[in-house]
Amino acid sequence: SERAIRAMFAEARSKSPSILFLDEIDSVASRRDSAMSPGSGRESSATERVLTQLLGEFDAASSAADVVVVAATNRPDLLDLALLRPGRLDRQVYCPTPDKECMLRILERALPRREDCDDGFLEIVAEIATSRHFSGAEALGLVRTASLKAIESDSPNVTLEHFRFALNEVRPVANRQLLDFYESWNALAHQNPQPL
Prior knowledge:
This protein is mainly alpha-helical. Helix content is 55%, strand content 5%. The protein has helices at 2-14, 32-35, 41-63, 100-110, 119-131, 136-152, 160-169, 176-191, and strands at 18-22, 67-71. The longest helix is centred in the N-terminal third of the chain and has 23 residues, at 41-63.
């Protein structure tokens, strides 16, 4: 609601210097034209009020150098373009899925008792997870699932077989088509950083 947004920004100002992180910002700041579907008058009116309040708070925060607003979304195409004006969310940073080296580091850090494992198999898992476009969070899900499978099978170590089970259980959200969309949106955003 507008009141919650006002309170959130007021708290950020009262505790400045501060960073205000808005996760899944598309849920409260979607394009106004996308909210105007037939029969959604009351809902689109509420959405518009929340967005208007949010834009006003962004403008107030941009004039105060001690409050930085950071937002995340996996649906940049749904964001209202007014959010991307200078002084609001004017820098877009695309975070791709991890490459093999990053994936290996994520798996190594997340896996308990790594010293008891065969060194080579994590590279195999990292390569498979990278080729399937696993995110960092999904890689952590792989480790949890493989670790639970090791516990179920009374194994003192997590093995490649446990990870093979996990790779069949944990499904990545991203696919090549979705990543192509993100990459093209990112290229367009940097080609034309001020859409309005």
